[in-house]
Amino acid sequence: MPGLTAPSDYSQEPLRHPCLRINAKEPFNAEPPRSALISSYVTPVDFFYKRNHGPVPLVDDIERYSVSLNGLIENPKELFMKDIRMLPKYNVTATLQCAGNRRTAMSKTRTVKGVGWDVSALGNAVWGGAKLADVLELVGIPKLSYSTQKGGKHVEFVSIDRCKEEKGGPYKASIPLSHASNPEADVLLAYEMNGEPLNRDHGYPLRVVIPGVIGARSVKWLDSISIIAEESQGFFMQKDYKMFPPSVNWDNIDWTTRRPQMDFPVQSVMCSLEDVDHIRPGKVTVSGYAVSGGGRGIERVDISVDGGKNWIEATRYQKTGVPYVADSPSSDKWAWVLFEVTLDVEQNTEIVAKAVDSAANVQPERVEEIWNLRGILNTSWHRVQLRVGRSNI
């Protein structure tokens, strides 16, 4: 692509914040400490998790950079940044979450394959850009379309990013045309993050943001958009990010029996406490995040100080001074909800968190029930151990 190159090595990597916990150096994958993650409702770019599959692409000429729209359409088109910026700009507050978030905890049950993420492989940002539904209209696809006249039913996003899983080819993913052409789905071609141009780690100069869906579908460093008849045949759609039962292993797996994962299930995590925390007896403030896919709100966050026998409801909030009500127009439907509760803890105990979304979906109790060989979608109850000690002073 003119103006955008994929380096062959890691010698031109961007600078990153020193507090990040590095899970892999080449390609670079890192997350912030859990306590830093919930220091603000909108995650600072430096603290937003970094998920890469190869060397970070480099833009050498933004004026020449373009995205091609092609496939099963009447009039293919080449779009430059100025064309995209001429479309109405939308700001959408949305949480992106890696499907492998909390994989490390799942791997303690049985070995899984993938980057060892703790609980911070997600972040909440204000994404700015053009709606994909408006972009598709430029090539003659009306809003709320299920199919083009030539039989296109899916929209494939192809990156300049090269990765070993694609045998050196580009990263790619797709969503149904009905999703892409629905303005209410808020799918963006984003060029801003938190009011600033995207940085290199997060897809500069242009990326897709698909709210409510696992992060693997929000393709960065966009090269082309193709209207195709079937789902993308890329590795990450066909041979990864699918949900299998605990009985499936690498000897008996049949990838064709499962559809690519889209929505993320309901999730909550305590971020003010580590997995094992040593505290003094008395009041303990527990805070963290809860989020659900598909635009579903968070109806409740329940906290237990006795391992799940009894529950206390936590306070939920998004913006200061605005009451959070699940699925209310005043709430950010694609964004996480922060929660907080103060507890009395006088002895060693296990604290548990679970969330319920607006469709009454609830997190499963035990990680063993949802274990899968790729370690994705660990949404089991989040647990931390508290060890209470008395000061000698």
UniProtKB/TrEMBL annotation:
Keywords: Metal-binding, Molybdenum, Oxidoreductase. GO terms for molecular function: heme binding; molybdenum ion binding; molybdopterin cofactor binding; sulfite oxidase activity. InterPro entries: Ig_E-set, MoCF_OxRdtse_dimer, Mopterin_OxRdtase_euk, OxRdtase_Mopterin-bd_dom, OxRdtase_Mopterin-bd_sf. Residues 53-236 form the Oxidoreductase molybdopterin-binding domain. Its cofactor is Mo-molybdopterin. It holds the Pfam family Mo-co_dimer. Residues 260-387 form the Moybdenum cofactor oxidoreductase dimerisation domain. Transmembrane segments: none annotated. It is an enzyme of class 1 (oxidoreductase). Its EC number is 1.8.3.1. One of its GO terms (cellular component) is mitochondrion. GO terms for biological process: sulfur compound metabolic process. Pathway: Energy metabolism; sulfur metabolism; Sulfur metabolism. This is Sulfite oxidase.
